[in-house]
Amino acid sequence: MNSLKSLFTPKPRGVGVELTPEKINVARLRKQGSKLKLETLASVDIAEGIYEEGQIVDASAVAEAIQTVLAESKLKVRQATTAIPGRAITRVIPVPAELDDQELREMVLNQEASLYLPFPRDEADVDYQKLGFFVDEDGIEKVQVLLVAVRKDITDSYIEAFRQAGLGLNVLETSSFALIRTIREQLRQFTPQEAAAIVDVEFESTEISIVVDGVPHFSRTVPIGTYQIQSALSRAMNLPPSRNTDLLQGMTVPASPMDTVGSPQMGGTNPGTAAMLRVLGELADELRRSIDFYLNQGEDMEVAQLLLAGPGGSIGQLDEFFAQRLSLPASQIDPISALSLDVAEDIPEAQRSGLATVIGLGLREV
Known about the structure:
- The chain is an alpha/beta fold.
- Helices cover 32% and strands 30% of the residues.
- It contains 11 helices and 16 strands.
- The chain has helices at 59-72, 101-116, 152-164, 175-182, 184-187, 226-236, 271-295, 318-326, 335-338, 349-352, 356-364, and strands at residues 15-19, 23-32, 35-45, 51-52, 55-56, 79-84, 89-96, 124-135, 141-151, 168-174, 194-201, 206-212, 215-222, 302-309, 330-332, 342-343.
- The chain has a 6-stranded mixed sheet, with helices on both faces.
- Helix 6 runs antiparallel to helix 7.
């Protein structure tokens, strides 16, 4: 059985559950006429060491936390959709168009997959989806296939944690797919020659996905997240270290004039701000490297815009900071506006970009 749970096949309705190192988020949406209503949005904090770097360390503790947030939300569900952040291999590969479905399946899952995996094929769960046909430079018709692979031990740990929580998994996908689902309409503004770079600034890492026509063509995880920004800030201000990064949502990145080498000038900034700018500068450099690497693959593309998501995506003026550093338009993702969601109570703008993934998971269950 393929534990990626038929990533591209719909299943009965459940709830979207997002696992992060500091909390578990749950979203349930329903159709209300032609609109979507965010029926339930809830989260519960989890202790350090239960879930790290996209991996479940303690399945029983994760299961207990899932049960807690469902009980507190009065949600009685048997099924869920969840996502693995930053642990998937995604590739768009061309294969001959004349293959029938069975031949295509055999070729992609067995021959092609092993070429792209950094671990043995029998240790991977792999799924794929046909995208579209094209004619290559030799005049041969081919079909592009999106290949997704995750280590089997990771997918097994997710299935086990949800089983212990009393939930079956309708879909186990990657967080970038969930995020893309949330902003699908926004991505339609770009031409097929324009890529968007989605920058998902999470708790302990940032996932960079370069998306063309709504499909991730390149992804990379950088070990800089809100915890690293917060820690640098706390050290500089002589504050005790904390896993609570809510403080950052009230912070604003100063609009700094650039010095001659493109680094913000630190003159006149307090030590905390200077420390925060240093970490954000490192993140901007990693972003530039990722974009350059993608563009150097020889694709006739331009990266047209940065789209900022995740809890760190809402740091005040972060979009302007990245736009200035990378000379690219940047904007913060607002899933409530992007989907014209009907919400029971207003959600502060500072929290919205951090909800893009869990809302995308909830959308899968509508």
